[in-house]
Design a protein that fits this description.
The complex is a heterodimer of chains A (815) and B (218). Chain A is α/β, with parallel strands linked by helices and 815 residues long. Chain A is built from 29 helices and 26 strands. In chain A, β9 and β10 form a beta hairpin. The longest helix of chain A is centred in the middle third of the chain and has 25 residues. Chain A is globular. Chain B has 218 residues and is mostly helical. Chain B has one domain: Alpha Horseshoe (Serine Threonine Protein Phosphatase 5, Tetratricopeptide repeat), CATH 1.25.40. In chain B, α4 packs antiparallel against α5. The N and C termini of chain B lie close together (7 Å). The chains are: A alpha/beta (815), B mainly alpha (218). Chains A and B meet through α3 of A and α3, α4 and α5 of B. The structure holds adenosine-5'-triphosphate and magnesium ion (MG).
Chain lengths: 815, 218
C-alpha cells in the first residue's frame, strides 16, 4: 500500500507526460494524470480530477500537484464535493509540477506516509529556484536560498581535535523544538563547542535551537555529534545519553504529536473541542497573529549608540527568557528560542535601527525561513518564534497589535489570547473566539466569560486548513465549531442568537430589581470587573455592586509603572461609571499567573506558591502605599472598600489594615482630599485561611472567597495547567466542606462572606452559596441577569413548596 | 401590471435561459477581452457551460428557485473547464443554499442570494477587491442589491440595481492591475483592459434582471 499521486494540468499531454516521467522512477506508485477538459481541450475537468483522486487513493492518501489557476480551483472544488472522510487524506501541495511529482513519487515508492510524501513535494519547491509558478503573487522577499546563519559548515572549525560520537534518535518526532532546547540548555556551564548533523552532512551549532530544528532530524535518523573543549568527552557522553533517553517521548506513535497538542475530535464539518465561554456566535473566521513584519514607524527608538542598543536588547532578552522559563515546558522551549545566539547575531546587523527594530527584523527573518521549510514540524516553529519574540518586544516597550479592524462581526481564531486582548476583541465587534490552545482557566478565557464572548478552545490544528473568511458557528456551551454550517443550521443559529439577545435584554431589565430571600435577607448580585469597559458592562447588566475590582489590568502592560496620579485617574474613571454602587477594590495581585511588565515578579519566586499577592506587597510596601493612596483619593464621593489577595495568616491581615491606616494618615497630613475605605476585607483563597478564619475576627470587616484559587490550592492543581483541569471541580466534596467550615466560623464571628470567584456565577453553585448565608455573589457582568433570574425563580418555587435544587436545575435548563 | 412580484422557479428558469442567451450573444466579445489579458477562452468556457445548462433544463424541471440554481451550479462546475467554472459554480451553489426550499424569493431574499454568491466566489478564489476579477463586479452589485432591497424593491428591481452596479464595477476594472488568475502573469500589462470575468458577471446579471422583469409583468 502506498500514497498515490494526482497530477492536474490544463493540458492532457502535459499531465500524461509528467505522469510517465515520474512512473519511470516509481513503477509501483499509483500516479493518475488529470489533464485538459472533458473533451481534451486546454482547461481542467471536475470529472477527470474527481475520478483521478478516487483512482489514486488506495487508502493511504493522495498528494495532488497542479499547474495553475483553475487547476487549483477545480481541484479544491472536487475535494470539497467528495466524501469528507476520504478527502481528509487528500493533500494539495503547491509545488513545481515536474520536480514535485518526481520527488513525491520517489518518496511514495519508498513507503513514506502521506505527510512525508507531501513534504517531499514541497521541498522540491524550495529546491527549484524562481518560485513555484503559483499565481498567488508571492510579492517581495521569498524565503530565498539557504540562509547564511544556518550554514554552519562555512565557519572555520575550532582548533583541536573534537570528541566525536554517533547516536540514533529514538523518539519518533526527533529533535523538534523542545528536545533541541533541552540539549542546548544542557550545555549551560560548559564552554565546549558542539556541532551536530547527519554524518557527513551539514552541521549546526547545538546551541542554536533553530539551527537544530532546521535539520529536521527524526526518529531513526543517525546523528553525529562533535565536541571541542577540555571536557569534550564528558559533554558528548551526556548528550548521547540525553538523545538515547528519547526526551520522555519515546513511546509516542510515529507521526504523532506531543500529548498536550492532542487533536480534538472532528466529525463531519463539526470540530468538537473544549467549551470556554457560553453562547453562540456565527461569523467569518478571522485569524489573528498576522503580525506586521516591520514595526510601525516610531516604535523602535534608535539608541544613542549601537553599543547601547545592544545592551538594551540583551537585557530584554534575558528578562523575557526568565519570564518564559517559568511558564511550563513549552515556555521553556520559547525561552530557549529567544535566547538563541543566531537571532542575536542576526539582530546585531541592524542595531542602528534601535533594539526593538533590530530584534523584530531578526525574528521575522528567522521565522520566515522556518516556515519555508518543507518539514511541517520545523515550519510550525515559525509561529512559536514570533510569539516568543513578542515577549522580548514587550520588554522593550513595544506592544504589537495583532487584532486589527477585520474582527468586527467575525470569529477570531488564534493559538491563544492575552487577557488584555479579549476586551479589545469585544470592543472591535468580534462575535466569538476560537483558540487552538489555552485552557479553561486561563485568564483570557475567564475574561471572555465576563464579557459574554462565546469561546471554544483547544481546537488544535483542526481549523488550520480553513481559510479566513470561512463562516463558522461557534457553540461555547457545547465546545464545538461547525465549519460552513448549512443554511438551515445557520438560520437556526441566527434565530437562537437573536432570541438569546432578547432574553438577555429582558433579564437585564429584570436584573435591576434587588434579590430578596424569603426570610427578608437581601443578597447582592455584584460584578467582577477589571477595566472601565467592564464597569460599563456591569452597570448595563444590572450589577448592584462591584464585589471585585481587579487592579492588575490597570498596571499589567503599563510602562512605566503608573504613579499615584495615574492610578487615581484610572480608578476615578471606573468609579464614575459605577456611581454610588458599593465597590470593593482588590489591591494588586502580582505573581501567580499575572506577570506585570514593569515589576520584577519572576515566576519562580513569585509563582502560585511564592511571594504572590499581599505577600509581594508587604515586601514592597511603597507599591502598596501608592496604590492605597490612589484608591482613597479616587474614593471621594463613592462607596469604596479595599481588600487584599492571597492572605494566609492573621498577622498579614493586620499588616494590611495598618497599611490602610498609614495611607489615610499620610493623605491627611499632605492635606490631599480623600475618603477612608468603608470596609477592609481579605480574599479567602488559601485553605489555611479558610480553615482558621477565626484568626481574622476583629481585624477584617468581610471575607471574599476567591473560589478559583481556593480550589486550585486545595486540590494542588495549577489552574493554568490543562493537564490537571478536571481536578478543579467546584462540586468536589473537599471544596464544599471547606466552604461549610468557612461560612460556619464566619457566621459565629459575625464576619460577612462574599464569593467573587467563578463559582458565584455557576448556575448549579449559586443557590448553594446563598443557602450558606453568603451576602454577595460577584460574577462576570454578563452572567448577572441569568443568575439573578435563576435564583429568583428557584427561591420562589422553594417558597411555594418545591425542592430548591431541582428548581435550579430546571431554571438552568430554561436559561 | 404585476401579477406576482416574487421570484419563482419558473422565473428563475427564465432568468437562467436569458443568461445563457446573453453569454452566446457576447461570447466573441468575452473571448476577445480574455485574449487581451488572459488565455482567450472565457467566452468559450462560459458558452460551453451554459449550453450544458440549457440541455439539462430541457429534461429536468427543478421545483424551486434553489433547485434551479443548484442545477446551474453543478453543471457549470463540471463543464466550464476554466477558472470561471468553479468560481461561478460555487457562486450558484451558495446562492442555491441560501435560497433553500423557498418556493418564491422576495426582494430581500434575492439580495441575500446575491450576497451568498459573492461570498462563494471570494471564498473559492481568495481574490481581494481591486485584484481585477469578477469580484470587482460582484461587490458593488451586492451592495446595490442590498440597498435596493432595504428600500423595498421587488426581485426584478433588485437584480436591475445589481446589474447596473456590476456594469460600472466591470468598467472600473480597466485601470486595475490583475493580481489573480491568468491575467496576473501579465503584471502591469493587464492595465487598460476590462476584466472578462467582471464583464461576464455584469452581462449575466443584466440578462437575469430583464428576464425576471418580463416574467413578472406577464
Ligand atoms: N482567483 C480568482 N478569484 C476571482 N476571480 C477570478 C480568479 N481567477 C480568475 N478569476 C476570474 O476568472 C476570469 C477568467 O475566467 P476563465 O474562464 O477565462 O478562466 P481562465 O483564467 O482561463 O482559467 P485557467 O486557470 O483554466 O486558465 C477572470 O477574468 C477573472 O474575473
Ligand atoms: Mg481564460
Amino acid at each position: 500500500m502506498t500514497v498515490g499521486l494526482v497530477l492536474v494540468s490544463h493540458s492532457r499531454q502535459l499531465a500524461d507526460g509528467v505522469a510517465a516521467l515520474a512512473a519511470q522512477m516509481a513503477p509501483d506508485v499509483s500516479i493518475e494524470p488529470a489533464g485538459g477538459t472533458d473533451t481534451d481541450e486546454i482547461g481542467t475537468s471536475f470529472e477527470k480530477i474527481s475520478e483521478a483522486l478516487n483512482a489514486a487513493d488506495s487508502g493511504d492518501g493522495v498528494v495532488v500537484l497542479y499547474d495553475l489557476g483553475s487547476a487549483q480551483l477545480t481541484t479544491e472544488t472536487a475535494i470539497e464535493f467528495a466524501d469528507q472522510e476520504q478527502a481528509a487524506r487528500w493533500r494539495m501541495v503547491d509545488a513545481p509540477l515536474v520536480e514535485g511529482a518526481i520527488a513525491a513519487a520517489v518518496a511514495a515508492a519508498g513507503g513514506a506516509d502521506l505527510d512525508a510524501v507531501a513534504a517531499a513535494a514541497r521541498t522540491a519547491a524550495g529546491a527549484a529556484t524562481g518560485g513555484s509558478g503559483s499565481a498567488a503573487g508571492n510579492s517581495g522577499q521569498g524565503p530565498g536560498p539557504e540562509p547564511d546563519t544556518m550554514a554552519e559548515e562555512h565557519r572555520p572549525e575550532p582548533p583541536g581535535i573534537p570528541a566525536v560520537g554517533q547516536v540514533q534518535i529514538v523518539n519518533p518526532l526527533g529533535l523538534h523544538a523542545r528536545p533541541s532546547a533541552e540539549l542546548a540548555r544542557s550545555l549551560a556551564g560548559t564552554s565546549a563547542t558542539v556541532r551536530i548533523g547527519r554524518p557527513g552532512e551539514r552541521e549546526v551549532d547545538l546551541r542554536s535551537v533553530l539551527g537544530v530544528v532546521g535539520l529536521a532530524l527524526r526518529g531513526g535518523d543517525q546523528v553525529q555529534i562533535r565536541v571541542w573543549g577540555p571536557d569534550g568527552a564528558a559533554v558528548l557522553g551526556r548528550l548521547e545519553q540525553a538523545i538515547r533517553s528519547g526526551f520522555g517521548e519515546a513511546d509516542q506513535p510515529a507521526g504523532g504529536v506531543p500529548a498536550s497538542d492532542a487533536e480534538p475530535r472532528v466529525v463531519g464539518d463539526v470540530v468538537h473541542a473544549t467549551a470556554g465561554a457560553n453562547g453562540l456566535a456565527l461569523g467569518p473566521l478571522v485569524r489573528l497573529g498576522a503580525l506586521p513584519a516591520t514595526l510601525p514607524d516610531g516604535a523602535s527608538i534608535p539608541a544613542e549608540s549601537e553599543q547601547q542598543a545592544a545592551e538594551q536588547l540583551d537585557a530584554a532578552v534575558i528578562a523575557a527568557a526568565k519570564t518564559l522559563a517559568g511558564q511550563g515546558e513549552f515556555g521553556q522551549a520559547h525561552a530557549a528560542l529567544v535566547a538563541d545566539p543566531q537571532l542575536r547575531s542576526l539582530a546585531a546587523k541592524r542595531l542602528a535601527d534601535g533594539a526593538a527594530g533590530a530584534w523584530w527584523h531578526a525574528v521575522n527573518e528567522q521565522a520566515d525561513r522556518l516556515e519555508a521549510s518543507g518539514d511541517e514540524l520545523v515550519a510550525a516553529r515559525g509561529v512559536d518564534l514570533r510569539e516568543a519574540g513578542l515577549s522580548v518586544l514587550a520588554e522593550l516597550g513595544v506592544h504589537l497589535d495583532r487584532i486589527g479592524p477585520a474582527v468586527s462581526g467575525a470569529v477570531a481564531l488564534a493559538p491563544d489570547l492575552g487577557p488584555a486582548e479579549v476586551p479589545e476583541l469585544v470592543r472591535r465587534g468580534a462575535v466569538g473566539a476560537v483558540l487552538s490552545g489555552s485552557s479553561t482557566t486561563a485568564h483570557a478565557v475567564i475574561v471572555a466569560r465576563g464579557l459574554g464572548l462565546p469561546l471554544v478552545l483547544r481546537t488544535g490544528s483542526a481549523l488550520d486548513r480553513w481559510p479566513s473568511g470561512t463562516t463558522v458557528l461557534v457553540d461555547g456551551d457545547a465546545g464545538t465549531v461547525q465549519i460552513d454550517p448549512p443554511q438551515a443550521v445557520a438560520d437556526n443559529a441566527r434565530r437562537r442568537i437573536a432570541e438569546a439577545e432578547q432574553r438577555a435584554e429582558e433579564l437585564r431589565a429584570a436584573a435591576a430589581e434587588p434579590l430578596v430571600l424569603p426570610d427578608g435577607r437581601r443578597v447582592l448580585i455584584a460584578a467582577n470587573i477589571g477595566s472601565q469597559a467592564d464597569a460599563v458592562a456591569a452597570v448595563a447588566n444590572g450589577a448592584e455592586a462591584v464585589g471585585l475590582l481587579r487592579t492588575e489590568l490597570l498596571v499589567l502592560d503599563r510602562n512605566p509603572y503608573p504613579d499615584e496620579d495615574a492610578q487615581t485617574a484610572d480608578l476615578t474613571a471606573i468609579f464614575d461609571e459605577l456611581g454610588d454602587r458599593p465597590v470593593v477594590v482588590r489591591v494588586l495581585d502580582a505573581g501567580g499567573d499575572k506577570p506585570v511588565a514593569t515589576l520584577d515578579v519572576g515566576p519562580q519566586r513569585n509563582g502560585f506558591l511564592g511571594v504572590r499577592g499581599l505577600r509581594y506587597l508587604l515586601e514592597n510596601p511603597h507599591l502598596l502605599r501608592t496604590q492605597l493612596r490612589a484608591i482613597c483619593r479616587a474614593a471621594v464621593g463613592h462607596r469604596i472598600s479595599v481588600m487584599a489577595p492571597m492572605v494566609t495568616v492573621g498577622t498579614e491581615a493586620q499588616a494590611f489594615r495598618e497599611a490602610v491606616d498609614d495611607a489615610v494618615d499620610s493623605l491627611r497630613q499632605d492635606d490631599v482630599p480623600h475618603a477612608r475605605p468603608e470596609q477592609i476585607g481579605i480574599m479567602i483563597e488559601v485553605p489555611a485561611a479558610a480553615l482558621a478564619a477565626e484568626q481574622f475576627a476583629g481585624v477584617v470587616d468581610f471575607f471574599s472567597v476567591g473560589s478559583n484559587d481556593l480550589t486550585s490550592y486545595l486540590m494542588a492543581a495549577d489552574r493554568t495547567e490543562p493537564g490537571v483541569a478536571e481536578l478543579l471541580d467546584p462540586q468536589s466534596p473537599a471544596l464544599q466542606r471547606i466552604l461549610d467550615a468557612l461560612t460556619t466560623t464566619a457566621a459565629r464571628e459575625h464576619i460577612p462572606v462574599a464569593v467573587c470567584g467563578e463559582m458565584a456565577g455557576m448556575p448549579d453553585q449559586a443557590l448553594g452559596l446563598v443557602r450558606r448565608g453568603v451576602f454577595e455573589l460577584s460574577m462576570a457582568p454578563a452572567k448577572i441577569p441569568a443568575i439573578k433570574h435563576l435564583l429568583r425563580s428557584a427561591l420562589a418555587s422553594e417558597a411555594a413548596g418545591g425542592r430548591g435544587t431541582t428548581a435550579v436545575g430546571a431554571a438552568a435548563d430554561r436559561a | 401590471m404585476t401579477s406576482t412580484t416574487g421570484c419563482t422557479a419558473a422565473s428563475t428558469v427564465a432568468a437562467v435561459r436569458a443568461a445563457a442567451e446573453a453569454i452566446t450573444e457576447h461570447k466573441v466579445e468575452l473571448t476577445t477581452l480574455d485574449r487581451q489579458i488572459g488565455d482567450g477562452d472565457h467566452g468559450e468556457n462560459l458558452a460551453r457551460g451554459f449550453a450544458a445548462v440549457l440541455s439539462k433544463l430541457d429534461t429536468e424541471q427543478p421545483a424551486t428557485p434553489g433547485a434551479v440554481l443548484k442545477l446551474v451550479a453543478t453543471t457549470l462546475i463540471s463543464t466550464v473547464g476554466g477558472a470561471s467554472g468553479p468560481l461561478f459554480g460555487t457562486a450558484f451553489l451558495r446562492a442555491a443554499t441560501t435560497a433553500g426550499d423557498e418556493p418564491e424569493l422576495d426582494g430581500p431574499m434575492v439580495a441575500a442570494v446575491l450576497a451568498a454568491a459573492r461570498d462563494g466566489v471570494v471564498s473559492r478564489g481568495k481574490a481581494e477587491p481591486q485584484d481585477k476579477t469578477m469580484v470587482d463586479a460582484l461587490i458593488p452589485a451586492v451592495a446595490a442589491a442590498e440597498k435596493a432591497a432595504t428600500e423595498g424593491a421587488d426581485p426584478a428591481q433588485v437584480l436591475h440595481a445589481a446589474a447596473q452596479a456590476a456594469d460600472q464595477g466591470a468598467a472600473d476594472t480597466t485601470d486595475l492591475q490583475a493580481r489573480k488568475g491568468r491575467a496576473s502573469y501579465l503584471g502591469e500589462r493587464s492595465v487598460g483592459h476590462v476584466d472578462p470575468g467582471a464583464r461576464s458577471t455584469a452581462y449575466l446579471l443584466a440578462a437575469m434582471a430583464g428576464a425576471v422583469e418580463t416574467e413578472h409583468s406577464r
